[in-house]
Write a structure and sequence with these properties.
This protein is of the alpha/beta class. The chain is built from 18 helices and 15 strands. Helix 15 (about 385-395) runs parallel beside helix 16 (about 410-420) and helix 16 (about 410-420) runs parallel beside helix 17.
Length: about 475
């Protein structure tokens, strides 16, 4: 990787001049750039340079960053050799000059102009960008350019609470107590994330627009409330897998301060609550009442939801364009009747594995949601060719359809799709036992734009697969026929 190469070259040339002063790293850069394991070191190395000591795990004790710091531990060969010692110091000094006034020979990468380095730095994740800030004074100044800090993206193995605290502290230096440039924070997979990090974002980052904390199961309702209350521009929130979160609402204090006309409004448009198992109808009612601008809502595997929750959702959020209630086993045809009230605004719907849904519910969707582009009804065993007939005749712009594991879907339904949905690009018929060669041939002869076809575990011949490939040349066929390749 060019960053590691550059760090090593800079360390070799500048190590002496920085090592004696011990000023190569800042608290922010060192705290965030250290990767590796999550366990806490047992003991602090001795004989390091003066300054506050912060231990950060590292998988390589001889990394370029360690050599750049110019500070080594007296027991580096002992059990703590895997730890990197990071010191809290001021930014690196400028390179020394010779008596004649000429700068020392620089690494080739340092000959690049500032605007080129900025473009390169803009492609780096947050931890790598912080490593770059520890190379030299020039890189430090460039790495902390405000234009590079609209997004923070931290890997899961970091001590994320501490890393986020020092990052926001550094970003607030030019504008005390507030960070105006930060708009996106991605902390998905950081299982050590706690409410403290969300409180930090709520306090210092009022311009936050996008927050992703998927899989961070330690955060609670109160911390989420604080973020949505103090970040009025927040539009994208991903809390999938946060099992302790049961709803989205403003804090009580904020609600009391706002006028009745605006006290129930949150700007969130995109909300992913997949695998929020504790979400119930009451929580969904609260979400809908506060987040009336929702356009994208994903409730996969929120198994406690029922048709009543969907009724409240449609009542308060008429602008929903994408909705997923996959694996919500209590959703039935009555729920689809409520969803159909979204009418022409609905583009994406997933009701996969909702076993209570039949042709009746699909008829409501087809009749009122004629602009539907994507439908996932996999595992809805009550669907038949009649449901596909309603869909084909009323939703001619359908582009993606999944009716896999629907044993009552046959060639008759497939032929109706082929005759009306010419723009179909993706179709899954996995484990549809009643599909035969005849249905596939009609499909291929009419849907030339088909790009993906799944016929795994279907009773189709090698000749039918070849026929599809001849007529739909860009189509990728997923199958279980070992003779077709």
């Amino acid at each position: 990787m060019w960053i590691d190469y550059a760090l090593s070259k800079m360390g070799a040339q500048n190590g002496k001049q920085y090592g004696s002063e011990g000023k190569i790293s800042s608290s922010v850069s060192s705290d965030v750039s250290s990767g590796g394991t999550d366990h806490t070191p047992e003991k602090t190395p001795k004989d390091v340079c003066t300054g506050e000591v912060i231990l950060s795990p590292s998988s390589d004790s001889q990394s370029p960053l360690t050599s750049l710091n110019g500070c080594t531990s007296s027991n580096s060969s002992s059990s703590v050799t895997a730890e990197t010692v990071a010191l809290v110091h001021s930014p690196p000094d400028s390179p020394k000059t010779h008596v004649g006034g000429h700068k020392e020979h620089r690494a080739p990468v340092n000959r690049l102009p500032d605007h080129v380095l900025l473009q390169i730095f803009a492609c780096l994740p947050t931890d790598q960008l912080c490593r770059c800030a520890r190379v030299c004074r020039r890189w430090y100044d460039l790495a902390w350019d405000p234009r590079l800090w609209r997004t923070i993206r931290l890997p899961g193995q970091l001590h994320v609470d501490r890393a986020l605290r020092v990052l926001t502290s550094r970003l607030c230096q030019d504008t005390p107590n507030v960070c105006l440039m930060l708009e996106t924070v991605v902390l998905s997979g950081c299982r050590r994330l706690t409410d403290r990090s969300l409180y930090t974002l709520a306090q210092y980052c009022p311009e936050l627009r996008r927050l992703e904390v998927a899989g961070c199961y330690n955060i609670s309702n109160e911390a989420v409330f604080e973020v949505v209350s103090r970040c009025p521009n927040l539009e994208h929130l991903d809390i999938s897998g946060c099992s302790k979160v049961t709803c989205i609402s403003l804090t009580r204090e904020v609600s009391l301060k706002l006028s009745p006309a605006h006290g129930r409004q949150i700007s969130i448009r995109y909300l992913d609550m997949t695998d929020c198992f504790a979400l119930e109808d009451e929580g969904l009612h609260t979400i809908a009442a506060h987040c009336t601008q929702l356009t994208h809502l994903y409730l996969r595997r929120c198994a406690r939801l029922t048709d009543e929750g969907l009724r409240c959702l449609v009542l308060y959020c008429p602008g929903v364009r994408e909705l997923s209630v996959s694996d919500c086993r209590f959703v039935s045809d009555f729920g689809l009747r409520e969803i159909a009230k979204l009418e022409g605004r609905l583009r994406y719907l997933s009701v996969a594995h909702c076993s209570r849904i039949t042709d009746v519910g699909l008829r409501y969707i087809a009749k009122y949601c004629g602009q539907l582009r994507y439908l996932n009804a996999r595992g809805c065993e009550g669907l038949t060719d009649h449901g596909l007939e309603y869909l084909a005749k009323s939703c001619p712009r359908l582009k993606s359809l999944d009716v896999g594991k629907c044993p009552l879907v046959s060639d008759a339904g497939l032929q109706l799709l082929a005759l009306h949905c010419f723009h179909l690009k993706r179709l899954s018929l996995k484990a549809c036992e009643s599909i035969t060669d005849r249905g596939l041939r009609v499909l291929a002869a009419n849907c030339f734009d088909l790009q993906l076809l799944n016929v795994q575990d279907c009773d189709v011949s090698l000749g039918a697969l070849r026929f599809v490939k001849r007529h739909c040349k860009r189509c990728i066929i997923e199958h279980t026929n070992p003779a077709f390749f």
